[in-house]
Write a structure and sequence with these properties.
binds acetyl coenzyme *A, 3% strand, 3-stranded antiparallel sheet, globular, binds oxaloacetate ion, Citrate Synthase, domain 1, Cytochrome p450-Terp, domain 2
Length: 378
Amino acid sequence: MSDEVKRGLEDVLVAESELSCIDGDAGELVYRGYSIEDLAQKASYEEVVYLLWHGRLPTGDELQSFTDAMIEERTINTGVYEQIERLAAADESPMAALRTIVSTLSAYDPDADAEVIDHEANARKARRIAAKLPTALAALQRCREGNDPVTPRSDLDHAANFLYMLNGSEPDPVLAETFDMALVLHADHGLNASTFSAKVTASTLSDLHCAITTAVGTLSGSLHGGANANVMRMLKEVHASDADAVTWIEDALESGRRVPGFGHRVYNVKDPRARILGERSKELAEAAGEMCWYNYSITIEEYIDDHKGLAPNVDFYSASTYYQMGIPIDIYTPIFAMARTAGWIAHTFEQYDENRLIRPRARYVGNEDATFKSVEKR
Ligand SMILES: CC(=O)SCCNC(=O)CCNC(=O)[C@H](O)C(C)(C)COP(=O)(O)OP(=O)(O)OC[C@H]1O[C@@H](n2cnc3c(N)ncnc32)[C@H](O)[C@@H]1OP(=O)(O)O
Ligand SMILES: O=C([O-])CC(=O)C(=O)O
């Protein structure tokens, strides 16, 4: 038994997975062998979800019936709406609300009492969670803004339907396609912290809703998915300050600030997802004739590369992309969760298929010879 403490579990192998492969030195990401560049450009989110859950890309017929089955599950129960209204009224943050919403979905899931490892029931639960989360998130955001929820449409794909439910109007095709691509890019990423937490939860043989609730909580932190909203808040700080972007980032680094959207546990070079989103952010800026958000981002990227040798991760350019699409900053991380649900579910299924309780050890460094005194004598 090794007594070496691996803080942060860096480079520790704890599982085998067929889902996604990251080459951190080359800056490459593949899902089940397909490059992220190909999938981002050519595959819909629904195709990628099918790929992750079923092990291969669907045929046309398979895609149609999978999509139809997901569409059928888009509506959410009145009880879930009432919970959403309560959460919005309590001014709960969207990520905390989403965590509660996943739990609440369990209360209304017809398969809630199925055996934990019942493949058929889990496939149905998976479709329900993935299909209902966008409806719930859009409803939450509309409630937070004092608007009525919008009923999902069955003639729009997953991405376009979310934007429709969020804004109450059919999205521009370029924005719908951009959003679909962003969902594809966020669908899976090896054993990142939230996926690992889902596997830990599943390894105790608790159910799919438990695993996804755990994962939402883990994604919310500022070192993980929470960074995308912080990137946009930072860009807005730069915009509001009197300093130019170089002076601003110089001061921020000097004051010891950790810059959101930079650095990664696995990538030693630019995250390939940041490359793709950066290009899209630029295209949106050019189309709108407003380059400031993209220009701040580029300036900060160059400065941090020169002075810290750190490259942007996925959260850096999703921020300006979403902002230019008019998406409220508070729901950037919930959108990440909505997309990553595909990967969390796929990894939970892999965990169930090869389950062993995940239980590492901590080296005890506390007091070893304490003498107990009764409370009156302390
Ligand atoms: C979807 C995702 O989860 S992607 C990651 C999203 N998170 C962020 O963008 C938050 C900012 N980034 C970070 O905090 C980190 O880079 C992490 C958490 C992503 C990776 O952390 P780790 O692999 O544990 O690296 P660690 O935190 O030890 O950093 C190594 C060194 O780089 C520095 N560093 C890393 N990232 C940053 C950053 N964003 N800004 C400034 N310095 C940084 C650290 O200060 C540290 O320097 P030191 O050794 O002199 O103290
Ligand atoms: O892999 C990680 O550690 C974080 C990340 O980029 C992701 O979850 O997409």
